[in-house]
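Predict structure. Chain length: 118.
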Amino acid sequence: MCSPLPSGPGSRGDLLAHLVARFDAAAAALAAELAQGPLSDVPAAALPELTAAVHRSTDLDETCATLMTGAVHASGVLAVAGFVSTTTWLTAAMDAYANQFLRCHKVGEIMVITAHLT
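Prediction complete.
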């Protein structure tokens, strides 16, 4: 069940943080569900639409990530933080995420997730 969107006073940043947290939780839940094993118990008739919906979501997510990365780049905040480029920052951020993911999940779970996603 989704939590309601924040209401009342708050910044756009608060709303974005809330939406990103919900997206991250949904993506993690989907990955965990896929790690449970083959999708043979999902009705075959439902698989094409479910798969297409994931691809549509991925396209939207990629667009959002691109727009937000552009905003980070244009803000100049990365130079203040000591990063020589947006690429350097993004690589460091993704490496940190990958390391956190590896600490939080067993190697077997990661192998199952990878097998089902490839």
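Summary: The chain has a mean pLDDT of 82.
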